[in-house]
Amino acid sequence: MKIRTSERISNHPWETVSTVTVQKYLKPMTSSLVGVDVMDRHTDPFGKFHSQRLLGTERGLPSTVKSLIGAARTKTYVQKHSVVVPIDKTMELRSASISFTNMVSVDDRLLYKPHSQDPEKTLLTQEAIIIVKGVCLSSYLEGLTVSTTSANAKSGREAMEWLIHTLNVETEQLVASGRGTSGHRQ
Q1: Which of 58, 96, 141, 179 is most buried as measured by Cβ atoms within 10 A of its Cβ?
Q2: Domain limits of the chain?
Q3: Residue from 84, 87, 85, 109 nearest 96 by CA
Q4: Strand extents, DSSP E, 12-60
Q5: What is d(CA 133, CA 126) in angstroms, rounded to the nearest whole number?
Q6: Could you tell me if 24 and 156 are in contact, meaning their C-beta atoms sit under 8 angstroms apart?
Q7: Domain 2-178 = CATH 3.30.530.20
Q8: How far apart are CA 136 and CA 9, in angstroms?
């Protein structure tokens, strides 16, 4: 078993980060993503917003890994559950792999909350637990999975930044077009 933990600070307020985090799987940079299905979305009686999604990915596994786990297919599925608590300004995102779980399990937990010293920034705490069982070279596979998890986390942060930039540009264009039309009214 390997545990990967990290903390990151985003230079954007929690409201912005939590809004785009839910949408980050829609970015054009995710060529391996083949589908996102929303299984459930609801607000509970306490005002917490829950979202349950199933993601399908087509990732090319190295041939060494394919031979070690005895798999020819590369399509994998991940279940994601997020809980947004607006009153506390927290968002928790839990991911669990549901493919190859008899050999590899990856459980990921991300917590987003305002930075304690600067409310215009967001603190992201991440913990991933990786377990490889029943295959030879499990330590090697755990290390490879940690590297993949790190790369995916970086890609997720890049997607968030791309979405925030896109949202800001669209907002500026909307505001500018509103100013342009309001001056022509009589």
Answers
A1: 141
A2: 2-178
A3: 109
A4: 33-43, 49-58
A5: 23
A6: yes
A7: yes
A8: 38
Residues 31, 62: Cα–Cα separation, whole Å: 17
What's phi and psi for 163, nearest 5 deg?
-65, -40
User: Order of strands across the sheet with 49-58?
Assistant: 2-10, 122-132, 104-114, 90-97, 75-85, 49-58, 33-43
Q: Which amino acid is at 119?
A: P
Question: Coil, strand or helix: which one is 83?
Answer: strand
**75 with 56: CB under 8 angstroms?**
yes
What CA–CA distance (Å, rounded) separates 77 from 96?
9
26 pLDDT exceeds 70?
no
The region of weakest confidence among 26-30, 65-69, 133-137, 151-155 is 26-30
Instruction: Identify which of 14, 4, 21 has the alpha carbon closest to the alpha carbon of residue 123.
Output: 14
